[in-house]
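Ops channel
N.P.: pipeline sanity check, posting one input/output pair.
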């Protein structure tokens, strides 16, 4: 274990032994953490950079810290944190950012917090939480992979804007069996109009609106091999997130052998794109290319926010290739032509008819 507390230190030391498992740099003049600052400390388990003067952390500061379990940066001057840098610490479980100057959390932070079980964001300047973080901490039923991990969150002493996201987070964390535990559940509203200093549980939350879903079409019919786009739009507050689920196969499709090969339904679909053009509105499109009979069925677009869940079904029917009309038989036209030709032959004169009779009887024709 290496501990440095000299107030004259202004940079990350480079002579730390390579076999160090715990490094503490506390109450120094260090103001930034540069790229690959701890590259040679591959055995490091605990990194404490507490109560310094750090204002910036490079996204690649933690390269090669694959064994790190705990990172503490509390008591610094950070206004932002490089969440993508957590990819270099796959075993990190404890992240402490208490007592900094963070005013916002990027939505993409949720992508890098999957393994964090202890997150302290208390005593910062946070006002709202992204919906993506709430989806991470309170996933929809069926989306939880593996056993439920308990998570401890420190969110107190922030000037929260009292909306239904943070309100429901507190409510869910207090529910029986919740996987999320708040260090201090008594959050205060310090930025809401007319609600300064009010406990969150007493705030009047009137902006919450359950999502409504509107599909572009409820029934779609297309042929085998074609491409289809299924779209739905949702509105609500907070801005809802959209999920696609295939719930059933098409019941009256003639290709029963193809349908029996389908995987078990319902199933979540992950090959879709979605955007939010403005607050409260989101659209989503799923692309089905080269349709087969197994693609037929009912698809549901689900919209979820902290106020509730709504969904809309879209039924997709896949048809076979269109058959060509049967062409006329080839011998019908020639037969008709021969009959017309026979009917159009000139009639024989009486004299010619008499000569044919004489010839057939073995007599000489007249005039020979």
């Amino acid at each position: 274990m290496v501990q440095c507390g000299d107030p004259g230190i202004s940079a990350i030391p480079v002579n730390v032994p390579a076999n160090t498992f715990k490094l503490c740099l506390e109450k120094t003049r260090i103001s930034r953490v540069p790229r690959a600052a701890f590259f040679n400390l591959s055995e490091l388990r605990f990194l404490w950079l507490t109560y310094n003067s750090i204002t910036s952390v490079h996204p690649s500061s933690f390269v090669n810290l694959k064994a790190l379990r705990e990172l503490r940066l509390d008591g610094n001057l950070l206004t932002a944190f490089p969440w993508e840098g957590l990819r270099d610490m796959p075993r990190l479980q404890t992240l402490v950012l208490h007592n900094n100057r963070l005013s916002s959390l990027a939505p993409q932070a949720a992508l890098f917090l999957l393994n964090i079980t202890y997150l302290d964001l208390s005593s910062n300047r946070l006002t709202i939480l992204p919906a993506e973080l709430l989806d991470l901490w309170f996933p929809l039923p069926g989306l939880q992979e593996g056993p439920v991990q308990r998570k401890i969150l420190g969110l107190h002493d922030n000037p929260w804007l009292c909306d239904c996201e943070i309100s429901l987070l507190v409510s869910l964390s207090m529910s029986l069996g919740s996987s999320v535990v708040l260090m201090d559940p008594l959050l205060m509203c310090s930025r809401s109009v007319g609600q300064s200093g009010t406990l969150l549980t007493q705030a009047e939350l009137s902006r919450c609106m359950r999502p409504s879903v509107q599909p572009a079409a409820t029934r779609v019919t297309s042929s085998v091999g074609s491409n289809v786009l299924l779209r739905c739009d949702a509105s609500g507050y907070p801005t809802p997130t959209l999920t696609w689920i295939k719930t059933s196969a098409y019941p009256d499709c003639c290709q029963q052998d193809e349908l029996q090969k389908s995987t078990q339904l319902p199933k979540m679909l992950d090959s879709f794109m979605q955007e939010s053009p403005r607050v409260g509105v989101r659209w989503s499109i799923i692309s089905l290319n080269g349709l087969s009979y197994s693609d037929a069925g009912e698809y549901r677009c689900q919209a979820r926010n902290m106020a509730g869940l709504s969904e809309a079904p879209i039924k997709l029917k896949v048809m076979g290739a269109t058959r060509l009309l049967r062409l006329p038989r080839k011998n019908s036209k020639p037969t008709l032509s021969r009959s017309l030709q026979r009917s159009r032959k000139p009639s024989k004169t009486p004299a010619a008819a008499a000569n044919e009779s004489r010839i057939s009887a073995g007599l000489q024709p007249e005039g020979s």
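N.P.: looks fine end to end. The domain at 210-319 is CATH 2.60.40.10 (Immunoglobulin-like).
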